[in-house]
Amino acid sequence: MNLADENFELREVQRLEGHTDKVWGLAWKPATGVNGIPAILASCSGDKTIRVWEQSPATGSFHCKAVLEDAHTRTVRSCAWSPCGKLLATASFDATTAIWEDAGGDFDFVCVSTLEGHENEVKSVSWNASGSRIATCARDKTVWIWEVLPHNEYDNLTVLQGHTQDVKMVQWHPSVDILFSCSYDNTIKVWAEDGDDDWHCVQTLDESSSGHTSTVWALSFNAGGDKMVSCSDDLTIKIWGADIMKMHSGDGNADWRHLCTLSGYHDRTIFSVHWSRDGIISTGAADDAIRLFVESEDGLVDGTKYKLLLKKEKAHDMDVNAVQWSSMEHKRLASASDDGTVKIWEFSQKKIQL
Amino acid sequence: MPSGLINANPTVYERQERRTRNAPADVDELAVEPIDQLEIFDILFYIKDPEHPYSLEELKVITADAIEVDDKRSHLRVTFTPTVEHCSMATVIGLCLRVKLMRCLPPRYKVDIRVEPGTHATEAAVNKQLNDKERVAAALENPNLVDMVNECLAPSFE
């Protein structure tokens, strides 16, 4: 590690308490935390609730403004805001996905719809870029795509089968309607539509394509959408790349290729990975630490183009289940843990003491 | 023995005599005492087998030697030996061990649970399931499984 590496820090800004069980997921509300609009963050937990936190413009600290309960009867595993920020989708082990609306804009969230159909634990929910579709996945090995209709109606478009074990996460590509899912079966699958709502798996990234050798827990895209990062129980993170021009040309999916594997940095399962808009990859792992990686020119010799920027040991008292960069305030990161807390972090360059 | 059991006639071993710990005479009561192998064994040995009226110690499913503790690094690995290769109760036994440890150990502890290499037909699958925290969390929201685990953990069995 050279001296320049030591000039960065991840400073704990606030610790949010209120959940009474593991916190599993996080989502920053789009278009908040900018232009004088206070930042809003949702968190979901094993306590069966979702909490919505807002930053006070006066003090800069976050306060819990709403506790969403009574819709889910089991762990709420993940949450996701619609791109316009009007709706919040929450996926639960109770086999349902709930859609919440804050109609009055006063943190008075009402569950306006419930997506039912999965046989068991729903693990992840994701909105596509335009907000016209939702994807969900479950332990039942399936991925469901739902069409968002007017008046809080949701129509199941298709049930995608292909994974051989439970599906841990679904994530839409940030600019093209291509869906990604990762699983306990160690693979990442890429799903695309070939007209008439006919969806199928166009690519499987598995061990034979330099993929993961154990459960793939999460994946995330860079700002350009031409790169993807995935994290796994195999203690590695992998970077994948595709020809974004080809994807945009309407040719459907371009092939995703393995670019590099970052191994040797983690010694327990990596549960969460998130790529910031300005290129910093964060990971949350079972060793209670948060790590930040960045693309680097130094490592070109051994083919690895990413380096560890910093490791925040003891970021939490227990496993870190989720890390999420704010899309608006580039230096702000939120993390969620088994210790029941959510933390807000600020990434910055250290002031050099002369 | 009623029929239909996975292992109708398990070998039952005598309970091992406990090694006594050599505590020095002038014990500093405030000193931090690291958690050791015997202490872990003492909280696990009595757990009842899910299908037999014997403890995991009596069936040699678990022994003190199969417990590896690194208190400094807050890491614990428990290796258990199913009584038969096709034991479908292996995941339940593993879940019992995990739940008991979750209840007893300080939260800083990282726990890995696995079956003794070569003692189970679907060893890799059992290990993967027992160490997937999401699956464990979901299992512990299943009332039937929780009842089963609690029955095995009930202190009445001795």
Largest sheet of chain B: 3 strands, mixed
- SSE string of chain B: HEEHEHHH
The CATH level-2 architecture of chain B is identified as 2-Layer Sandwich
Termini separation of chain A comes to 21 Å
Number of domains of chain A: 1
Largest sheet of chain A: 4 strands, antiparallel
Indicate how many domains the architecture of chain B comprises: 1
Count of individual beta strands of chain B: 3
- Hey, roughly how much beta strand do the residues of chain B contain? 5-15%
CATH-defined fold name of chain B = GMP Synthetase, Chain A, domain 3
Q: What low-confidence regions of chain A span 5 or more consecutive residues with pLDDT below 50? A: none
InterPro entries (chain B): FSCA_dom_sf, MIP18
Family (chain B): Belongs to the MIP18 family.
Region (Disordered) (chain B): 1-20
Biased composition (Polar residues) (chain B): 1-10
What's the topology here?
The complex is a heterodimer of chains A (354) and B (158).
Chain A: E1 8-16, E2 23-28, E3 40-45, E4 50-55, E5 62-68, E6 76-81, E7 87-92, E8 97-101, E9 110-115, E10 122-127, E11 133-138, E12 142-149, E13 153-161, E14 167-172, E15 179-183, E16 188-193, E17 199-205, E18 216-221, E19 227-232, E20 237-241, H1 244-248, E21 257-262, E22 270-275, E23 280-285, E24 290-295, E25 306-312, E26 320-325, E27 332-337, E28 342-349
Antiparallel strand pairs in A: 1-28, 2-3, 3-4, 4-5, 6-7, 7-8, 8-9, 10-11, 11-12, 12-13, 14-15, 15-16, 16-17, 18-19, 19-20, 20-21, 22-23, 23-24, 24-25, 26-27, 27-28
Chain B: H1 37-44, E1 67-70, E2 75-80, H2 90-104, E3 110-115, H3 123-130, H4 133-139, H5 143-153
Parallel strand pairs in B: 2-3
Antiparallel strand pairs in B: 1-2
Key descriptive features of the protein:
heterodimer; A: 354 residues; Methylamine Dehydrogenase, Chain H; four-stranded antiparallel sheet; 28 strands; B: 158 residues; alpha+beta; GMP Synthetase, Chain A, domain 3; three-stranded mixed sheet; 5 helices; 3 strands
